[in-house]
Amino acid sequence: MSKISSIVFFVLALTFAGASASFAQTTKYKCMIQMTNYMGEGAYISISLVDSKGAYEKTLYVLGSDKKWYKTLKEWNKFYLKNQAGVSAITGASVTGGDRSVNVIEIENSKINTGYKLRFESAVEDKAYNVKDLEIPLTTETLSAKSEGTGYIRYVRFSAN
């Protein structure tokens, strides 16, 4: 191999290695949310990835597609308005008392077992707002366990998709 060919090959190898490293490995999980038996309108719920200090990093899913009600999810809405990240591809219907919802969320593998948490924030029109209806450490153990909510969410279960 000539010296020029060797250099070109080396540059291409580095370029390919850098490009493949920039694509985060993710896993899709089915997320089943079982609601408590409350009376009232459907709950809006945001599922967010938060860092070890509790700062929002990414929206994973939003239950409730009418943007005019996003303001009821007060803390998540502040993050949403600052980032204006498109959430239309990761939204679904709100969920009412006693019902359950199954949605698919995608989590970067590098975030698991590293101090991140999943925060489930919930709000119902004319009722209480729960900034941390459920907040669980993002670990392999919690992704295979049942986690109890404290507000409108009775519990959440995950399964690999």
From TrEMBL:
Signal sequence residues: 1-24
Alphabetized UniProt keyword annotations: Signal
Alphabetical list of Pfam families matching this protein: DUF2271 (PF10029)
The organism's place on the tree of life at top rank: Bacteria
UniProt cross-references to InterPro entries, sorted A to Z: DUF2271
Name of the protein in its database record: DUF2271 domain-containing protein
Protein's organism: Mucilaginibacter pankratovii
